[in-house]
Amino acid sequence: MNSPAGPGGPAASAAAEVRFDPSLWLFLAPRHRRGSFLARYDGTSSLGHLVESLGVPLPEAGELRVGGRPARPAERVPPGEPVTVLPVRRPQPLPGGPRFCLDVHLGTLARRLRLLGLDTWYRNDTGDDELIEVSAAANRMLLTQDRGLLRRRAVRAGAYVRGSGPQAQLADVLDRFAPPISPWTRCPACNGALAPAGLPEVEAQLQPGTRRTYTEFARCQACGRAYWHGAHARRLEAVVAGARRQLDARAGR
Questions:
Q1: 222 in Cβ contact with 193 (< 8 Å)
Q2: Smallest Cα–Cα separation from 184: which of 220, 211, 213, 210?
């Protein structure tokens, strides 16, 4: 057992030996990133409060154990009982279906999820309160890299996105939720549904070279934006192909 350390400080009246799964160590203070440590607390705190006081948002915690038995976040932690915190099991079910809500810092990830046909709400000017409201009202999984946001009690369904760039972030979301995808069916700009369109419907949006070169188009049914397989198609197709390979590998196909 390691030396006593924790949120309660010298005046704390109780302590518990806490062990977090290594996949959750990124949320912990560096001194706690080890097998187990002694966390001091006031003796009356709930298990959920203890876990979050150490840095791990409850939406990132899967099974909780006290004294080796499964426990609920609202339970009190008996002094001296060992606590184990496991991660959320993957793939994690989505009770509201594959519907997401992303914070302002995940714009590129939002466009990639829409490219895969996933219903993704995103605005670059929204605040935390609106994000929580949208997530709850439409039963969307809130995706964020804001740990404080995930600790808000009003968040019903949230997940911390791992990865410093959009490629790693997308891989993490697909690994965590394994959602069914339908590429090329949503507008990357506004999330609206795409439908095939003839040249007369989109001609006003095209440059002369595009009108001469391409014959197949799609149009967003919400914002009217036109799409075609242009210069960026190869890069986008690589994103789609990578997502399909990852999901197929997870499913054992």
A1: yes
A2: 220
Pairwise CA distance, residues 22 & 35, whole Å: 8
To the question of pTM greater than 0.70 for the whole model, the response is yes
Lookup result for tokens 């697909």? 174
Poorest-pLDDT segment among 10-14, 108-112, 140-144, 244-248: 10-14
Angstrom distance (rounded) from CA 54 to CA 36? 12
**pLDDT for the residue 224:** 96
User: Under a CB-based contact definition with an 8 Å cutoff, are residues 195 and 218 in contact?
Assistant: yes
Specify which residues 186 forms β-bridges with. 193
Helix axes 107-115, 166-177, angle to 10 degrees: 60
Can you tell me the distance from the alpha carbon of 211 to that of 226, in angstroms, rounded to the nearest whole number?
Answer: 12
Picking from 94, 91, 187, 194, the residue whose alpha carbon sits closest to that of residue 140 is 94
Tell me the two tokens of residue 233.
């198609």
CA dist., res. 18 & res. 187, Å (int): 46
* Omega before residue 183 within 30° of 0, cis: no
What burial letters (b/e) apply to 223-248, b meaning 16+ CB within 10 Å?
eebbbbeeeeeeebeebbeebeeebe
CB atoms closer than 10 angstroms to residue 200 = 7
